[in-house]
Hints:
By secondary structure, the chain is α/β, with parallel strands linked by helices.
Amino acid sequence: MNPFFFRSHAHAHSHSHSRHHGSKHAHHAYPDTSDSLQTPVPRRPSIQIDNPSPSKPVPMASSLSTSAVPTIVSYNTPPATPPLAKDEEPTGIAWCTARARIPTPDGSEYFLHIYENSKDKKEHLAFVFGDAIRSKSLDKVRWNETEMDRIKRGAYTGRLRNTDSSSLGTEFTTASTETTGSTASLIPLVRIHSECFTGEIGHSARCDCGEQLDEAIRLMKAEGSGVVVYLRQEGRGIGLAEKLRAYNLQDLGYDTVMANLMLDRGADERTYDVAQAILEDLGLNQIRLLTNNPDKIEQIEKDSQIRVVERVPMMPKSWEAIELGREMEFEVKEGAVENKVVKGKELDRYLKVKVERMRHMISIPSNMSI
Ligand SMILES: Nc1nc2c(ncn2[C@@H]2O[C@H](COP(=O)(O)OP(=O)(O)OP(=O)(O)O)[C@@H](O)[C@H]2O)c(=O)[nH]1
């Protein structure tokens, strides 16, 4: 355990501004004096970074005796690439603008990353499990930035801890490193998941989107590594309003493909260039992709270094149960947020159309009647 205290301090630069990517530029001017602190004053007197890497030496609070609140001499996220020059624009299709730790009820945690991109106005996301996977664009040192700027956007290693002055110099419990387990050398599991408000939030039994998201997260927690790229492509890219219109057509008997076409939309309007850029930014050139959709594999590999070395199928839980003759035992927890599973005739019809008309690579249970 390495408690790592610091007080925000001036770099060699004569002034400071924080830089935001994309079309938004926010410049915060701080006093132009090398003696004054150039970062906003934190509400608490100190911030601790628990560094999970024992190989990385960090100063102990007790060894920093020159002032009551020690000043760090170097930041503990070494830049992988040269700093951005003044007014340099981010390059590439997608870049990460913020990252933060999200603890989950079972005690595990992941880092949520937000991406901006040059293709659309949406904020796409990446759920990153394990400490080994880092965003290059987030970690890149920016022009004249301060350590507090880096802390605020999440460009640190280890864990942040709020401390009060009475605890300075004492030992802290090291943040959990359970999720950085022995499987770190495995080719990471990746799920490229398209937003589905109805299936993930709305308890819908028309699709298995919520079940798939939960299952992907469960597998990544178990492996201690992995990434869910969460794309804001509601309704296979047609948006929620159009998807609801499609549902009305489905209630008249049209299937999920036909309903889209009747709205003058494509059966699937998604592209995966932003997902490609996010995976590249996270340094993932070889992945094990959780999907049944061949289109995702083809598009993610197209014109890119990324290789899907393994497809990990996502068998709907209810179909798995039917296949095993355990349908009667299959329990759907009412209103369960975690481990939600879906079943029913509407789901069966939806999945069957994906197999028959959208090339999805799952077997329809031989003993199933639709
Ligand atoms: N238009 C339309 N979209 C739907 C319908 N049901 C679900 N969706 C959307 O379909 C998308 C499902 O995305 P994913 O689960 O990532 O992908 P997939 O194509 O099913 O492929 P997998 O990786 O095998 O799950 C989400 O954007 C949902 O909002 C529907 O009936 N009509």
